[in-house]
């Protein structure tokens, strides 16, 4: 009876806490895609000239669902879309690609694909991008790292060199310095149709991942 209770508690813990989650064993060629980093704190949803027409009584167009106006929801949607599209692209290329759940330690072998959304300020400093791409920015970069897990433990993608301050513009993320091995892989994501933009970015990242793995000794 105690054994059954212990087993049930373990199952419940695994379901409630990502750190207990397990992923199926892969091999040296398995590609693990983690969620890319995109800030959502203290940012308003993008303003659109048609917003007033969509408001109740303001026109014929229906107002979008409120959940789409929330930065946290939009950030989650973008991150989810990118991860799914990237895994799909890699699988279409004949690779064993899998999502790495948040909070799960990467396996001892295989490849880890991860990244961070970035924006630049007037001083040409890189910042972690927020939903809305900062204060009216027209594009955002996607810095990507592709780590061979059998050779080393993945290092941090970047170092924070300046956190939020009173001099930071509204909607600006923390200024960061990318680690050298990440800086070469950057993909521009222009503002516009979210689905098309994310799909295009995933395709470019997928090509870079496949080239990196192919070139590995």
From TrEMBL:
InterPro entries: DUF4410 (IPR025522). PROSITE patterns: PROKAR_LIPOPROTEIN. Residues 1-21 form the signal peptide. Keywords: Signal. It comes from the Bacteria. Pfam families: DUF4410. This is DUF4410 domain-containing protein. The lineage of its organism: Bacteria, Pseudomonadati, Pseudomonadota, Betaproteobacteria, Burkholderiales.
């Amino acid at each position: 009876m105690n054994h059954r209770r212990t087993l049930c508690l373990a199952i419940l813990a695994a379901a409630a806490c990502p750190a207990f989650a397990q992923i199926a064993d892969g091999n040296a060629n398995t590609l693990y895609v983690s969620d890319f980093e995109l800030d959502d704190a203290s940012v308003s949803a993008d303003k659109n000239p048609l917003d007033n027409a969509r408001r109740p009584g303001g026109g014929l167009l229906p107002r979008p669902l409120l959940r789409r106006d929330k930065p946290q929801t939009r950030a989650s949607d973008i991150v989810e879309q990118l991860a799914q599209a990237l895994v799909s692209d890699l699988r279409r290329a004949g690779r064993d690609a899998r999502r790495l759940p948040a909070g799960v330690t990467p396996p001892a072998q295989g490849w880890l694909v991860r990244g961070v959304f970035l924006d630049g300020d007037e001083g040409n400093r890189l910042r972690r991008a927020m939903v809305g791409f900062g204060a009216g920015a027209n594009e955002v970069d996607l810095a990507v790292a592709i780590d061979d897990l059998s050779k080393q433990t993945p290092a941090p993608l970047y170092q924070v060199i300046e956190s939020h301050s009173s001099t930071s513009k509204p909607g600006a993320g923390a200024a960061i310095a990318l680690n050298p091995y990440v800086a070469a892989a950057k993909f521009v994501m222009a503002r516009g149709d979210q689905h098309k933009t994310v799909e295009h970015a995933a395709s470019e990242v997928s090509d870079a991942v496949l080239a990196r793995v192919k070139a590995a000794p």
